[in-house]
What does this fold into?
Amino acid sequence: MTATLQDEATRVTLEAWLVTDVGVVREHNEDSACMEPSQGFFIVADGMGGHAAGEVASAMAVETVKTTLEGAHAEIDAFKKAPTDAGRRAIVQLLQNAVLHAHQTVYQRGQAEPDKAGMGTTLDVVLIAGAEAFVAHVGDSRTYLIRDGRSSQVTTDHTVAEVLVIEGKLTIEEAQVSPLRTILVNAIGVSADVGVEMAHVTLKRGDRMLLCSDGLHDYFPVEEEIAQRLSAEKPGEALKEMVELAKTRGGHDNITGVAVHVTEIVDSIPHPMSDESTQPVDLQGNPFSADEPTQTAFTPTGTQVIPPEGAPPKKIRQTQPMRAIGDEVLGATLPPPMSKNAAKAGVKPDKAKADAKADKPNADGKADEADSKDAAPTEIGAADTGRVAVPPKDKP
It folds into this structure.
């Protein structure tokens, strides 16, 4: 799909493609996604929870964010016509409110309906306003920026393994195969508390962005391959090929990707942005600074949150301060600051290892059937269960 976003200051032309597939293991698709190039927003959500609750959670989150952003059309247009720091803060607040509203909607339904208790979803939202992209993120789906043949992971995986990488207790390579990569510390709708990570990108002509669930990015652990494929002349065809490759490499999970191509940016009235205008917007509060972070753990019966014993319900956390993404960070992930206590989540390593082993492929790419008998059923958690080790390189 192609669309032109035009205002008094900047004309931006976008192309976008959405591809989703159930994969080769799951019986139904718990991913949900939406793209509205004419309005400049794109959404990917990866649901979790048994008895089809995961697809309910992801669909509710996507629809809630979509409705909120459609209702804020005038506010977004006003920013595009006259971008200011105050306007950026307003856009950040708008995205935060949209995600928090989605969180409350999913959480309240999970509380009201026993068969949907503990359901949740990841959520990635990209809003393009003029020549700027605002990213809101919860969970372990990802958003990438591809520019000049290089790729950068804009978002951070909200998992125990990623916390340990940030603290220097695990290397990136160790985290890719660690059972702790399957444990979320932040998700939409699972508990009363959630944190929203924000990022900001000043776009350039030719930029591509990719929003995807872990069913896709798990099979493309090397960012250079993502950059190479999505830098192709036809990003839409490249995205389809990536989804098919994810299936042939294992297809352990539902697979969803949204690719966005900035084909043109024209300033009708030149208005160069000052350095100050592209600095991070510092909203007070860190969603990962609580002494006891939200933890999503997977059990044979479903998904549950393990809060600290006797802890009262917490207030919604505020938005993670927005980070500016530019040329200097391409090719490197920018994690948000997280507290050291986040690494002290009460996981049970033996159980985590068992769950991870159940979906770990052998050399032939198939899970060990003997080892998977006691594993969590396949309908549980498309958000971060069944993660796989780095796939072997294709043989020539």
